[in-house]
Amino acid sequence: MTTEQSKLSQILAAAKAEDRAALIAYLPAGFPTVPGAVTAVQALIDGGVDAVEIGLPHSDPVLDGPTIQTADDIALRGGIRTKDVLETVRQVTTANPDVPVLVMTYWNPVDRYGQTRFAADLAAAGGAGCILPDLPVEEADEWLTAAQQHGLDTVFVVAPSSRDERLGKITAKGSGFVYAAAVMGVTGTRAQVGNLAEDLVRRTRATTDLPVCVGLGVSNAEQAAEVAAFADGVIVGSAFVQRLLDAESEEAGYAAVRELAAELAAGVRKR
Q1: In the predicted model, what is the mean pLDDT of residues 147-172?
Q2: 30, CA 20 to 30 Å: which among 58, 66, 74, 263?
Q3: Are 75 and 30 in contact (CB under 8 A)?
Q4: Is pLDDT at 2 greater than 50 in this prediction?
Q5: Preceding omega of 32 cis (within 30 degrees of 0)
Q6: How many domains, in total, are found in the chain?
Q7: Residue 136 CB: number of other CB atoms within 10 A?
Q8: Which residue of the set 50, 64, 84, 226 is catalytic?
Q9: SS3 call for 72
Q10: Do residues 245 and 263 lie in contact, with contact meaning Cβ atoms separated by under 8 Å?
Q11: CA angle 232, 238, 244 (to 5 degrees)
Q12: Is 64 a domain residue?
């Protein structure tokens, strides 16, 4: 595993020192276009997010709801490739060297690309690590070895259905933070944050000293403040994607993303 001094760990520790949750934002690479994704992610950072997840678009995103599926489809029809995702990471990290940039991806693209090669290329691009929602920890040793060699954090996902024993197995293998899915089901904005989230954070913390960050469903400052009251980080994705989808122009979309990021950044400071 990576050390506590990884870029991601430093950012999460800095937020904790300010007595607030970190704000982590997600957008898929290649959406609305390959260069447009770089601009959109920069708008997130300008709005005040602490860390960024860049999604690797997938043809069968089984854990993602219709909003992210739509964005992935746009990216795939635009010809996005894994090398373009890595180039997006490189451009973002070059412009923002202090902001941790993670790739969130299903396992199949990494396996096809080559685990060791992907870890090396992600590190070379300045990436801070990977979020791997569908990689069982029992099958992760080869990846974890490669990630450790290249200083990458590996974030695993836990869900309300995870039993306590299972939580311990997952958190023992991960680094950076633990991604706690606030609700059962796929990603997407919701009128209310799932009431299972706080209990999941409590149970997860009983197994690890890693920060626990909550995602799936947060779409406004009030929900961000609600989650920030009990979690170490608030993860927002679909709400940003929806802003870009709803915008009348790409420029309007970037402005809308920046505005929402600023609202959410204020929200995580209200706990």
Answers
A1: 96
A2: 263
A3: yes
A4: no
A5: yes
A6: 1
A7: 12
A8: 64
A9: helix
A10: no
A11: 125
A12: yes
List, in order, residues 6 or more apart from 244 with CB less than 8 Å away.
27, 31, 32, 40, 71, 253, 254, 256, 257
Q: Partners of 155 in the beta sheet?
A: 131
CA–CA separation, 6 and 161 (whole Å): 30
Amino acid sitting at position 62 = V
Order of all β-strands in the sheet with 153-155: 153-155, 129-131, 101-104, 51-55, 22-28, 233-236, 212-215, 178-181, 157-158
CB burial of residue 56 (10 Å; 0-12, 13-18, 19+): buried
Active site residue 53: yes
Torsion sign across C-alpha atoms 27, 32, 38, 43: negative
Pairwise CA distance, residues 7 & 106, whole Å:
23
CATH code of the domain containing 42: 3.20.20.70
Q: Is residue 257 part of a domain?
A: yes
The verdict on residue 198 lying in a domain is yes
What pLDDT digit, counting tens, does each position of 219-230 carry?
999 999 999 999
> How does pLDDT run across 199-251, given as a tens digit for each residue?
999 999 999 999 999 997 889 999 999 999 999 999 999 999 999 999 999 99
Tell me how far CA of residue 265 lies from CA of 71, 188, 220, in angstroms.
24, 19, 10
Q: Which domain holds residue 231?
A: 7-267
Q: Which two tokens stand for residue 170?
A: 């997952």
The answer to whether residue 222 is catalytic is no
Q: How many CB atoms lie within 10 A of CB 162?
A: 19
Q: Which of 53, 72, 153, 226 is catalytic?
A: 53
Q: Give a yes or no: residue 11 inside a domain.
A: yes
3 state SS of 195: coil
Looking up tokens 């990689």 gives: 135
Give how far Cα 58 sits from Cα of 9, 19, 61, 157, Å. 28, 36, 6, 18
* Eight-class DSSP state of 148: H
